[in-house]
Design brief:
This protein is an alpha+beta fold. The protein is 19% helix and 33% strand. The protein is built from three helices and five strands; from the N terminus they run βαααββββ. The chain has a five-stranded antiparallel β-sheet with strand order 4-3-2-1-5. The longest helix has 5 residues.
Amino acid sequence: MADKLKKGSLVRVARDKLENSLEAQASDPRFPAYLFESNGEIVDLNEDYALVKFYVPTPNIWLHVDRLEAVK
């Protein structure tokens, strides 16, 4: 999956992959709905992480690329 994602790709967060992740265990497990219900755009990539911009008034967020699914 990671090789298909690049800057400008539209993505959606996979709920099952994020909720069962190390990141979820290390932080508040109550994720905002927009993560799963709206599309985001990759604005930067750094090895295994992507900086995703959502079109809601929130800061961009770094997510592991394994937690993302490309929007078709």
